[in-house]
């Protein structure tokens, strides 16, 4: 009899907890803010597309009037020789962003956005263990100290999806990431963003170390065996996972990478003009933004602005014009 009563009490408590959670969830889910848009801007990707990064960045600032950028800092670009830094490109980006009243999230580490993900300079490629970690930390310390007093820098992102097995990279290191976070927190009090794959990564362990959690959001992926496959996830799934993370974050969950360009199955310069025109359209862009807005997240960084500019220069300005409407 006592056991039955215990079971009954537990059941009643669980039912009340479930009812309360549903009520709270419904109440929270109706209080979504409008989705704010930014872009990830990559000098490395600009070069790969044959673009001038300075010209491209200025076009995004002046023509599209974008005010929020996530900018990867490529270790191989800024420190070609140990202790010898080339700040010309990065200083240009920071200066022009400030001049146009834009904000920056600077991404530091050895694994940052765009293929091959890890941009390790030749001089550091042979370093292993603690020596390799020390080189990463030395670079990050130099970068943070250079820009920590600049109000244009809104936050730091440390590494990019550090535990997602994608790219040509050394094995991930939880200890190194902890050291990187500790270092940046000791140098600057700006928020720290960490990122995960929105579809394929667990979020919890990364969220526990972050102020802001960034997730990638792809509506379509490519598998050699099956071709293009849509991810079978609804906005509710992302929203619910973000809700679960809220107690562990000082700030929020944002979309750090929202698909806004084609998923390339071959080099872009092998595509015909007709193939490029239909590979990712303005309707696709709007569809992905609408989906992201339904998640209730406050911000999304679009992925592919350099591609829009390349297509514009090639006489196919559909994506560029669509983006102009979105950002204005």
Describe the overall structure.
The chain has a single domain (31-327), classed as Alpha-Beta Barrel (TIM Barrel), CATH 3.20.20. The protein is built from 13 helices and ten strands. The chain has helices at 2-29, 43-48, 53-62, 75-78, 88-99, 129-147, 174-187, 204-207, 235-245, 273-279, 282-294, 305-313, 318-327, and strands spanning 36-40, 68-72, 103-108, 153-158, 191-196, 212-217, 220-223, 227-230, 253-259, 299-303. The protein has an eight-stranded parallel beta barrel, surrounded by four helices. The protein has a two-stranded antiparallel ribbon with strand order 7-8. Helix 3 runs parallel beside helix 5 (88-99).
**Helical content, roughly?**
40-55%
Rg calculated over all Cα atoms: 22 Å
State the name of the first-level CATH class.
Answer: Alpha Beta
CATH topology: TIM Barrel
- Total of domains: 1
Spatial gap, N to C terminus: 68 Å
Which class of secondary structure composition applies to the elements?
alpha/beta
The rough form would be described as: globular
Tell me the quaternary state: single chain
Task: Give the low-confidence spans.
Answer: none
| Topology as a string of helices (H) and strands (E) | HEHHEHHEHEHEHEEEHEHHEHH
CATH architecture: Alpha-Beta Barrel
Query: Which sequence of strands runs across the widest sheet?
Result: 1-2-3-4-5-6-9-10
Corresponding CATH superfamily = Glycosidases
Tell me the fraction of residues in β-strands, as a range. Answer: 15-25%
């Amino acid at each position: 009899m006592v056991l039955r009563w215990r079971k009954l009490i537990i059941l009643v408590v669980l039912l009340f907890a479930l009812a309360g959670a549903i009520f709270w969830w419904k109440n929270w889910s109706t209080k979504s803010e409008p989705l704010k848009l930014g872009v990830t801007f990559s000098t490395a990707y600009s070069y790969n597309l044959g673009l001038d990064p300075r010209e491209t960045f200025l076009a995004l600032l002046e023509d599209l009037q974008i005010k929020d950028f996530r900018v990867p800092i490529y270790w191989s670009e800024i420190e070609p020789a140990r202790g010898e830094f080339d700040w010309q490109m990065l200083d240009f980006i920071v200066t022009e962003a400030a001049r146009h009243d834009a904000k920056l999230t600077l991404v530091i580490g050895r694994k940052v956005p765009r293929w091959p993900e890890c941009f390790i300079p030749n001089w550091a490629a042979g370093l292993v263990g603690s020596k390799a970690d020390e080189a990463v930390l030395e670079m990050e310390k130099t970068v943070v100290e250079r820009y920590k007093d600049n109000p244009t820098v809104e936050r730091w992102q440390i590494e990019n999806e550090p535990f997602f097995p994608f790219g040509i990279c050394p094995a991930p290191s939880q200890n190194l990431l902890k050291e990187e976070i500790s270092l940046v927190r000791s140098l600057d009090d700006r928020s720290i963003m960490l990122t995960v794959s929105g579809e394929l990564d667990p979020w919890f362990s990364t969220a526990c170390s972050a102020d802001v959690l960034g997730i990638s959001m792809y509506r379509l992926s490519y598998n050699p065996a099956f071709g293009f496959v849509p991810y079978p996830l609804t906005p509710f799934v992302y929203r619910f996972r973000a809700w679960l993370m809220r107690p562990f974050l000082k700030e929020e969950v944002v979309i750090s990478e929202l698909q806004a360009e084609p998923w390339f199955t071959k080099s872009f310069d092998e595509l015909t003009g007709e193939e490029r025109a239909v590979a990712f359209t303005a309707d696709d862009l709007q569809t992905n933004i609408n989906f992201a807005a339904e998640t209730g997240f406050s911000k999304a960084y679009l992925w592919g602005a350099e591609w829009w500019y390349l297509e514009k220069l090639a006489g196919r300005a559909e994506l560029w014009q669509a983006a102009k409407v979105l950002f204005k």
